[in-house]
Design a protein that fits this description.
The chain is 23% helix and 28% strand. The chain is of the alpha+beta class and 223 residues long. The chain has one domain. It is globular and about 40 Å long.
Length: 223
Amino acid sequence: MQIWIKCAAILMASFLSGCATAPPPRTVYQDSVTIVRIEFDSKAGPGHSHPSTISPDAIRHVLNGVRIQSRASLIPSILTGEASLIAAFSKEEQETLGLYLNQALAEARPNELITFYRRVSTSTVGLAITSGGLFVHGRHLYIVLANDRTLPSEGMSQSIVSEIDPVDSPLLPISRTAFRATFVPATSIVPDDERWGWPYIDQGRVVVIDLVQLARDLRQSAP
């Protein structure tokens, strides 16, 4: 337990670095299940490209393209030759978050990023959490999917002694082993060697999208 407590302290310090002088988050929207905030980013370096004008429709297209892949099924299916990908956001989430993430990006400063938090309750999984953040850097949109329909108890399988609800730390992953994030169409993904190096505890949950290429892909796929 002492080892876990030490690791947890280091982890939280990495997320809250500079919190003693950082301004408090600014809430853009909050209800009983959804929170969208603008938060200080101590890792912004020279600064992000904020304020940013990305339309709600474009944000919805982005959320529609985000996928999760179980890390237990990274080996492609014998029958299909492809690993199974699951949509990270429901249609309702795309509509709700698209509106408020657009507003937050338009209000954010260069040293800030946007975080989102959703409480999901279904008959199959019970209460679960979807959370993460995003920011624009140049022509690239960075999306961090820290949790996706993750149970607050999932971290307990990794020696964590209690449930975690990251309502105040949306970028904190509850479980480190469950999934990785990706995007379709894959042609819009920025290769690793062309990305600006924003540090995060799990790069497998950071998706970087070329907004210019995404616009081309959307035009080509339009009827």
